[in-house]
Every structure is written in structure tokens, then in C-alpha cells.
Specification:
The protein is an alpha+beta fold. It folds into three domains: about 130 residues, Translation, Eukaryotic Peptide Chain Release Factor Subunit 1, Chain A (2-Layer Sandwich); about 130 residues, Nucleotidyltransferase, domain 5; about 120 residues, Ribosomal protein L30/S12 (60s Ribosomal Protein L30, Chain: A). It is built from eleven helices and 16 strands. A five-stranded mixed β-sheet has the order 7-6-5-8-9, with helices on both faces. β5 and β6 form a beta hairpin. α2 packs antiparallel against α3 and α8 runs parallel beside α11. The longest helix has about 35 residues. The radius of gyration is 29 Å and the shape is flat. The protein binds zinc ion (ZN). The site of zinc ion (ZN) has 8 residues, from loops.
Length: about 425
């Protein structure tokens, strides 16, 4: 997942689940890995149901058994566990302060990454840690560790790297002319270096180009100056070449060098996900200066652009200072929407339905990011959630906390 709306949505759901507490030890979290037989899981749950009859507290017993029963009913809808497995949270959540206000809530999630192991947890809160792990950003970086003796190509995802290829060189060490003239030896050596760089470049292209879409950057490292010569010589495909974000001197080569590079690059990598956000905001301001018609900003303008299908990318501040309320007349069904600042209460005193004149209304608050995300899905726009508290976050805030890059200019008629 990237910093897009899907990730925001997933994180929001986790946060919501995390905030829920049971009255007793009666909230069930169930992690089912891919490939597990649904009927085996149901059988397991029936055993748990029987076990629960030993629970002394009558209400807790009833709640646990109702939760298990709800899960079984839901699982029966699946013939097969989905590709990444299934995660189910179910339990009696108090809806008010009093005893007996609990209601069984159930959440069935098809996670973005495979569930690793089967887990059944019954506690006074939901067990969400494995989901939190999935929600963490796991961008990929290409690593090339090299000197004139050879090169290693690796892919880094989160804290884990994987070596994907080794390339050896047959470059003779310096000053071993062994009978040949020194000049001729140097020339041959240079040719072999060039050859090796070419091979390394080709193998790096083969390994990394298929990952181009998810690759955040490429980092080169190694002892000596070969790493610099390799970069300067453009031995990588131009698409990879422009992704190089650093070239770092190292003491080691081979796998030890890869480990050293990962350690040294850590700070750099932290900044690089932010770098993408920064580039997005910069793009908006560049367009504003040159082709202002290609940008919409402020919530109503951006909504208009999304509705028209003109928005290509939408940037929204993670704590956008406005919210949206939907006001509905229960008498005639009339609906209107208002955008209000988050720090102000929606002042609706004296509201009157323009349709039927009724003064009774229902209010529903809408999460703007979620709302934009839904609109984005329908119109094919990518939604990016931008960190606040950054320099570019402040810039976006000056535009009302939301801006869109348009596919074409939207004209007013
Ligand atoms: Zn009305």
C-alpha cells in the first residue's frame, strides 16, 4: 500500500477497532491464513462455543457464544478462504454506559497481505497487531553494492532485504602486468571494467525493471570509486537511472556490504517517502504558476472536478481543517450538505427545510478524506493523503487543505 486513500481507510478501520472495549473478556479476534479449510475453522469455533459454556459470568458467556455464532454464520458465506486469508473481529460492544446496552458487532476483513498464522483470541479488546504490521509502509528499494571485483543486486522492503542477483567480474588486479606492456595491460583492464559495468547494468535492469512501479528509489554503494564510475556511465536503464537517490561509500562488498548499505541508508529512506509527498505538492504549485487552469483547490472546487471526472490526482491534508455535514429533513427527505470548519460546531439553529418548511432535521458528519476517496474511486482519480506538520503540508493548508491536479482545464459555463 502506498500513501493513497486505501491505506488511509485501512489504518482508520484499525484505529476504530483498537478503540473498542468489551464489558468483559468477550471480544473475539480470528485470523485465518490462506489455504485453510473453512469447515475446519467452523468446527474449531464450535469447540470454542462448547468451551464457552464453562464461563461463570452469565452475560459474558452469552456474549461470547453469540459472537462465535455470528462468526460461524458469516464464515458459512465463504466456500473458500480468500487469497490473503480472512480476519474477523466480533464481540458485544457496549453502546452506552449501562449494562445490557451491548450489541454484537462483526467486522470481516480481507487483508491486503497474507495472514501468517491461525489465531483465535478472546480478550476484552480486539487483537489488531498483525493488521497494524500490514498497514505499515513497505516500499521497495533497489540496492546495488559493488566494486571492481563484482556486484550484488538486492531489493529492500521494510527492514528486510533480499539478494536477487550476483555478478562477478574477471578484472585482473592492478599492477600485475606479467610480461605485457603496462599500457596494453591498462587498456585491457579498462575494457574489462567497462564490460563488467555493462553486465552489472544489464542484470540490474532485469532484476529491478519488473518492480519499477513499486520501486521508490535505487541506492548504490561500495568501496572505492567503481560505484561512482558506474553511475556516471549510465549503465542502468534510464527509468532506473533516474530513480537513483544516493551513492554511498562503504567498507564492505557482497552481502556484508548490503547490510552496511541498509544501515547507512536508513535515514535517507525515511525521508524519501516524504519526498514523494513534497514532489506532489510542488507539482501543484508549479502548475498554479504556469497553468492555473489545471489545478482545483478548496473542497468545493475539488469536489466539482472529481464529479466531472477531470481530477487526476487529489492531495488532501491528513488533518484537513474542515468537515462535511449532511443535513436531512425526515419529513420530506430533502438533503443538503455543508462544509464547516472542524473547530466550530455546526450551527444549525433556525434551520428550516426549504422544501416543506419543517424545522426538524437529522445531521450526519462525513469524513472528508473518506468522501473524497469514494469519489476518487468512482472517477479514477488517485487520492494522496499528505502529512501535516511538514513544510509542504503547510503549503497545502494554505490552499484549504485539498487540491487536485486536473487532466484538462475545467471551464465554467
Ligand atoms: Zn422537508
Amino acid at each position: 500500500m502506498s500513501l493513497t486513500y486505501e491505506r488511509y481507510e485501512f489504518k482508520k478501520l484499525i484505529k476504530e477497532l483498537k478503540g473498542k472495549r468489551g464489558r468483559g473478556t468477550e471480544l473475539i479476534s480470528l485470523y485465518i491464513p490462506p489455504g485453510r479449510n473453512v469447515y475446519d475453522v467452523i468446527k474449531y469455533l464450535r469447540d470454542e462455543y462448547d468451551q464457552a459454556s464453562n464461563i461463570k459470568d452469565k452475560l459474558t458467556r452469552k456474549n461470547v457464544q453469540s459472537a462465535i455464532e455470528s462468526i460461524i454464520q458469516r464464515l458459512k458465506l465463504y466456500r473458500k478462504v480468500p487469497e490473503h486469508g480472512l480476519v474477523v473481529f466480533c464481540g458485544a460492544i457496549p453502546q452506552g454506559k449501562d449494562r445490557g446496552t451491548e450489541k454484537i458487532e462483526i467486522y470481516v476483513i480481507e487483508p491486503p497481505e497474507p495472514v501468517r498464522s491461525f489465531q483465535y483470541v478472546c480478550d476484552h479488546e480486539f487483537y489488531v497487531e498483525p493488521l497494524e504490521e500490514m498497514a505499515k509502509e513497505k516500499k521497495a528499494y533497489g540496492l546495488i553494492v559493488m566494486d571492481r571485483g563484482g556486484g550484488v543486486i538486492a531489493v529492500l522492503r521494510g527492514p528486510n532485504y533480499k539478494i536477487v542477483d550476483w555478478v562477478t567480474s574477471d578484472i585482473p588486479p592492478k599492477h600485475s602486468a606479467g610480461g605485457q606492456s603496462q599500457r596494453r595491460f591498462e587498456r585491457i583492464r579498462e575494457e574489462r571494467v567497462h564490460d563488467f559495468f555493462k553486465r552489472l547494468g544489464k542484470r540490474a535492469n532485469e532484476a529491478l525493471l519488473p518492480l519499477e512501479g513499486e520501486l521508490e528509489g535505487i541506492i548504490i554503494g561500495g568501496p572505492g570509486d567503481a560505484r561512482e564510475k558506474f553511475e556516471e556511465g549510465n549503465f542502468l536503464d534510464y527509468r532506473l537511472q533516474k530513480k537513483i537517490i544516493a551513492n554511498i561509500p562503504l567498507s564492505y562488498t557482497e552481502e556484508q556490504g548490503v547490510r552496511e548499505l541498509v544501515m547507512k541508508a536508513e535515514d535517507l529512506l525515511k525521508e524519501s517517502s516524504l519526498y514523494k509527498e513534497k514532489a506532489l505538492v510542488e507539482e501543484v504549485f508549479r502548475l498554479l504558476a504556469k497553468e492555473p487552469g489545471k489545478v482545483a483547490y478548496g473542497i468545493s472546487e475539488v469536489e466539482k472536478a472529481l464529479k466531472a471526472g477531470a481530477a487526476e490526482k487529489v492531495l488532501v491534508l491528513e488533518d484537513i481543517p474542515v468537515k462535511k455535514v449532511r443535513i436531512r429533513c425526515p419529513q420530506c427527505g430533502y438533503e443538503e450538505q455543508r462544509i464547516i470548519r472542524k473547530d466550530r460546531e455546526a450551527s444549525l439553529s433556525g434551520w428550516q427545510c426549504p422544501n416543506c418548511g419543517g424545522t426538524v432535521y437529522e445531521v450526519e458528519e462525513v469524513d472528508i478524506i473518506e468522501h473524497l476517496g469514494e469519489m476518487g474511486k468512482q472517477s479514477g482519480a488517485e487520492i494522496y493523503v499528505i502529512s501535516s506538520g511538514t513544510e509542504w503540508g503547510m503549503q497545502l493548508k494554505a490552499l484549504g487543505g485539498v487540491a487536485a491536479v486536473l487532466r484538462y482545464e475545467l471551464r465554467e459555463y
